[in-house]
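Structure ticket #2291
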Amino acid sequence: MEKLKAVRWQLELGGSCIDASSVEFRVWAPKVQSVAVNIIGNAGEPIPLSQESFGYWKGTVPDISPGTRYQYVLNHTIERPDPASRSQPDGVHGPSEIIDPHAFSWTDPSWRGLPLEQYIIYELHTGTFTQEGTFDAIISRLSYLRDQVGITAIELLPVAQCPGTRNWGYDGTFLFAPQQNYGGPDGLKRLVNACHAAGLAVIMDVVYNHLGPEGNYLGDFGPYFTDTYKTPWGSALNYDGPESDAVRQFMISNAVYWIHEYHIDGLRLDAIHGIFDFSAKHLLQDIGEAVRAEGQRLNRQVHVIAESDLNDVRIISPISRGGHGLDGQWSDDFHHALHAVLTKERKGYYEDFGQLKDLAKAIREGVVYTGQYSQHRRRKHGNSFKPCSPTQLVVCAQNHDQIGNRAQGDRLSSLVSFEALKVANATVLLSPNLPLLFMGEEYGETAPFLYFIDHGDPALIEAVRQGRTREFAAFGWTDIPDPYAQGTFDRSTIHPCIETNPQQHAHARWCQALIHLRKSIPALGTGTKGHKIQIGSHAKSQLLIIHRRAKEGPDALMLLGFHDKASLALVKLPKGNWESRLDSGTFAADDQEELLAPSNLNIQKVEQVSLKLPPYPAWIFLKTD
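Resolution: structure written out below.
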């Protein structure tokens, strides 16, 4: 630990302030014969950099300070922004800006982060979470998220500089520069600082599988990309070919940069199945180790979570057991199993799901496909996650991908009934895994979350339109909103009306109650050591019977129904005196009479009990004996 603390990390790329009036520039550019720095507004000639080993160029320029704008001049003719630019005030095609990383006045020195088992994640898109669409505007909503919803961490969709002002964030081309129209570097730091003051952790979604097509100038500097592999989104990055060491270091530096300069608490690595690396030591392991070391040096808990559709336990297995050693990963299977049961959709990847036993397995093991045949993939898929802790899997009923990658961006609230929404919330928020809500889900937002872009190249805009049409063919969707239209973006902004809309009000209270139970009853929290879960089912009434136990506190019994009609079920329940603690029927949007849960179930032995079930019940009982 002492050795780690002795070595202070700093970004060794880009423009770094040496003192108040001089800046050191360093860039990797093995493809060129010369590199110079053009200081914008300086009447003199560009200042040449000296060549170092392995294709790096370096030099110190006096008499410039933070706020100065600059570009690199390659081979005396080509002007390009800095690949490691900390700020792009004029967008992806403009000059870079010198930023002093020590100028911001942080007030979070006592913040130590949160253990992963305490994470209740709220995923949001900065541009559409508020009417203003800025980092500062999010700050005004933090007390609501903490006190009225109960979340413990926000997860920001990617904020690296993209073209234009409307983008999901996955078209970023300047990975060190926060999006300017969101508030730039200082805006992001203000948000993180405010989150920590409120006791909230911040996860940053980062993209290391590709870069966006517009403003992507890395290829002019060096072999950042490879033709050996292909991704659906753009050229694959060169992580294992000739001259790949510098590319790997570029991405590792970016990961640590967010932890060090922006005090980020966790990284969500986008679609790691698009990171191709056959090196003896995988890039994922390198990133995890570097981030963990910086967290230890700073005495903060930091986490690296992967998004992956591989169902490969090696991603989160310890390095000592041949894994990559990441802290967690998203479970697509959990979402797909829940969505298919609720909506009855069977097209695209949903053809692999739809049975209640799939959802039961997802809750029990975190994934469904653990090596069996997948009809959609036409091959065997996945391996077992039984050796892993439930804290290592993030689960959800909705997220940006699963909503936005539908033709109409339909949220679950537009596809199923209010009662079905409530049982979906209970399934996620009382799961043994780490729960994630997508912005507005906590009150049943109905505004779509559509795919939107703001590229400047008409040919590129048309290519995106055609690509979206092809992507949706497997689902049979044909009416695709124009991703370039301003209206597509505007429609995606959420509009909470919790105080005036009775259904939103009831829904918000329901989610708040679920999260309160999760936090206060150990058996309903994240499954840690000593946690046990047993799941039974009643196929005719589409009822899951979930018995959860923890080392401390009472046992919990959850009855979650997925049938759209009232039914009479004869079910086996575990022994004990069970007292009703939470019933979805009491969170109604109007005065309509609901079939409520019994206030008490006294089961003397494991026996069949007759229950009158309403459509989509979510009943939670606690053991009192």
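Closing remark: The longest helix spans residues 502-520.
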